[in-house]
UniProtKB/TrEMBL annotation:
InterPro entries: AAA+_ATPase, ABC_transporter-like_ATP-bd, ABC_transporter-like_CS, P-loop_NTPase, PstB-like. GO terms for biological process: phosphate ion transmembrane transport. Residues 27-268 form the ABC transporter domain. It holds the Pfam family ABC_tran. It comes from Pontiella sulfatireligans. This is Phosphate import ATP-binding protein PstB 3. GO terms for cellular component: membrane. SUPFAM superfamilies: P-loop containing nucleoside triphosphate hydrolases. Coiled coil: none annotated. The gene is pstB3. It comes from the Bacteria.
C-alpha cells in the first residue's frame, strides 16, 4: 500500500529530474569520513555533486545526512572532537587543508537551518548583516543588495513596505525565506539546506519548494530532507544514506522509480526507516 502511494506521487512530481544529467562538478567528496570522537558518522563517502542542480540527501534518522551536509562548509568544526579524513574538493582544493580560510569558505557555501534563525533586528538589517561584515558600507549599495536578495528569496513583495520592522514579527515561513535572503546576500555559490521546511506548515513549505525551483538556475543546492515526497519534488539528484554510508546516488526519478540497491528500495517503499 505504502509502495503504491509513494510511487504514484513521485511520478507526478519528478519530471524535472529528467535533466539531472551532471555536467560540471561543484563539490566532490573522495573517501570522505567525519568522526565525532571515535565514532565514524560519515563513512568513506565518495560523490560528485553537480553545479546548479538540486541534490537531496535522504535516509533514516541518524544516518549521517546532516553531518555530511555540514561537512561541506566545515560547520562541524564548531563541534568539539570532530575530525575528518579523505577529501572534500571545492574549486580544486580540499577544504580540509590547513591553509583554507573557513570564513571565505562559508561565504561561498551558505547555509539555511531547520528552524529559521532570524536576528532580533529589522528585516533590512538581517539581510544587510553579511554584506556589512564583508565591508559594504555604502547605503545605496546595501539597499540594492537587500532588495535583490529579498526578491531572489521571493519575499520582497511581502516586506518591501516594512523593511524597518523587527524580523521576529514575521510568520515562520516568512522568517525562513528571510534567512534564505540573508544567505543569498553574501552571494554564495552553494546553498546548503538542512531540513528547511520541517518547522513549516504545508503552505509555507510549498513556497520554499517553489523558491528552490527558481534558485536552482543560479545556485548549487544541497538539501537534507526527511520527506521523500519533497526530495522527489525539488531535486534533480538524490543521495540515499544508511548508517553513515552512501548507499546510492543518482538521478532522482531513477532512484525513486527504479533504484539499483535493494536497501534503497526498502527505504523508499517504507519497509524501514
Ligand atoms: N555533536 C555530535 N556528537 C556526537 N555524535 C553526533 C553528533 N551529532 C550527530 N551525531 C551522531 O552522528 C550520527 C549522524 O547524525 P546526523 O545528525 O548527521 O544524522 P541525520 O541523518 O541527519 O539524522 P536526523 O535525520 O535525525 O537529523 C548519529 O548517530 C548521531 O547520533
Amino acid at each position: 500500500m505504502t509502495e503504491e502511494i509513494t510511487m504514484k506521487k513521485i511520478d507526478t512530481f519528478a519530471e524535472h529530474g529528467d535533466d539531472g544529467a551532471t555536467n560540471e562538478t561543484h563539490i566532490e567528496a573522495k573517501d570522505f569520513s567525519l568522526f565525532y570522537g571515535d565514532f565514524e558518522a560519515v563513512r568513506k563517502v565518495s560523490m560528485e555533486i553537480p553545479k546548479q542542480k538540486v541534490t537531496a540527501m535522504i535516509g533514516p534518522s541518524g544516518c549521517g545526512k546532516s553531518t555530511l551536509l555540514r561537512s561541506i562548509n566545515r560547520m562541524n568544526d564548531l563541534i568539539p572532537s570532530t575530525s575528518a579524513t579523505g577529501e572534500m574538493i571545492f574549486d580544486g582544493h580540499n577544504i580540509y587543508n590547513k591553509n583554507i580560510d573557513v570564513v571565505t569558505l562559508r561565504a561561498r557555501v551558505g547555509m539555511v537551518f531547520q528552524k529559521p534563525n532570524v536576528f532580533p533586528k529589522s528585516i533590512f538589517d538581517n539581510v544587510a548583516y553579511g554584506p556589512r561584515l564583508q565591508g559594504t558600507k555604502n547605503k545605496q549599495e546595501l539597499s540594492e543588495i537587500v532588495e535583490q536578495s529579498l526578491r531572489n528569496a521571493a519575499i520582497w513583495d511581502e516586506v518591501k513596505d516594512r523593511l524597518t520592522a523587527n524580523a521576529l514579527g514575521m510568520s515562520g515561513g516568512q522568517q525562513q525565506r528571510l534567512c534564505i535572503a540573508r544567505a543569498l546576500a553574501i552571494k554564495p555559490e552553494i546553498l546548503l539546506m538542512d531540513e528547511p521546511t520541517s518547522a513549516l506548515d504545508p503552505k509555507a513549505t510549498a513556497k520554499i519548494e517553489d523558491l528552490i525551483g527558481e534558485l536552482r538556475n543560479n545556485y548549487t543546492i544541497i538539501i537534507v530532507t526527511h520527506n521523500m515526497q519533497q526530495a522527489a519534488r525539488v531535486s534533480d539528484l538524490t543521495a540515499f544514506m544508511y548508517e553513515g554510508v552512501l548507499v546510492e546516488f543518482g538521478k532522482t526519478k531513477q532512484l525513486f522509480t527504479n533504484p539499483d540497491n535493494p536497501q534503497t528500495e526498502n527505504y523508499i517503499t517504507g519497509r524501514f526507516g
